[in-house]
Amino acid sequence: MIMSANNQGTEFDLSWISKVQVNQPAVLRRAEQIQTRRTVKKDWQAAWLLKAVTFIDLTTLSGDDTASNVQRLCYKAKYPIREDLLKALNMQDKGITTAAVCVYPARVCDAVKALKDAGCDIPVASVATGFPAGQTHLKTRLDEIRSAIEDGAKEIDVVINRSLVLTGQWEGSDFIKTSTGKETVNATFPVAIVMVRAIRDFFWKTGNKIGFKPAGGIRTAKDSIAWLSLIKEELGDEWLKPELFRIGASTLLSDIERQIYHHVTGRYAAYHDLPMA
């Protein structure tokens, strides 16, 4: 039996999972279609890119993270696009921010303080539970979650113990995520298609909506539009909100802002034009 994280009283028949089959050629064709179609242009492109910003979990997960670079990250999360660019698009009063800031548990305090000082309520997410391998003892994993929450984290990206999945010991969750971003291969469209269709089937069977987060290797504005298109077409507009869709990324925002800059000015930004990128 598996329980939904949103409805602990919902019983689920695991035999359904054992019967799932994936039509790999069809999945690959669908993935190619998503990636090679002509993208939207001009004002439509700008609108989609600004929408993409609101789904980003702006992330720093480096071994040399410090309070100062977390502070800069948090400032960028609150002000993801230059104010003059937003004014040119008449979007300066729409409250556009990233969906969250994602850091290691040890940096949660820094992020919470920086966001509080900036006067915003963007949630802090933390990659607790033995990131990225997920192979620490359960007690250690739970202690790490408790510590991150005590320090002010509102969301926890849990790295599952993959041996449980491989042995059929399934658990419920509010979101499923493609990868940690620390692997050689991370978020890919074929895998994402299988995952979002599983989310869709689960919703049809139980009425419970599970969120989806691709993470790792999503770096370009064009990629972000493709991911939004996938969610819109496979799951519908109901999933196009931060409560059910996130993009885990560290460099994506820089390219989105560059594309917005080009849309407004007609030229691409020099390095010094976007110093916070």
Description:
It is built from 11 helices and 7 strands. The N and C termini lie far apart (46 Å). The radius of gyration is 19 Å and the shape is globular. Helix 4 (67-78) packs across helix 6 and helix 9 packs parallel to helix 10. The chain is of the alpha/beta class and 277 residues long. Strands 4-3-2-1-7 form a 5-stranded parallel sheet, covered by helices on one side. Strands 5-6 form a two-stranded parallel ribbon.
Uncertain stretches: 1-7
The side-by-side strand order for the widest beta sheet comes to: 4-3-2-1-7
**Global structural class:** alpha/beta
User: What distance separates the N and C termini?
Assistant: 46 Å
Helical proportion, percent range = 40-55%
The percent range for strand residues is 5-15%
Q: Which labels suit this protein?
A:
11 helices; 7 strands; alpha/beta; 277 residues
Topology, pairings included?
Elements: H1 15-18, H2 24-36, H3 42-53, E1 56-59, H4 67-78, H5 83-88, E2 100-103, H6 108-117, E3 124-126, H7 138-150, E4 155-156, H8 162-166, E5 175-177, H9 189-206, E6 211-213, H10 221-234, E7 247-249, H11 252-265
Parallel strand pairs: 1-2, 1-7, 2-3, 3-4, 5-6
Helix pairs in contact: 2-9, 3-10, 3-11, 4-6, 9-10
Short summary:
44% of the residues lie in helices and 8% in strands.
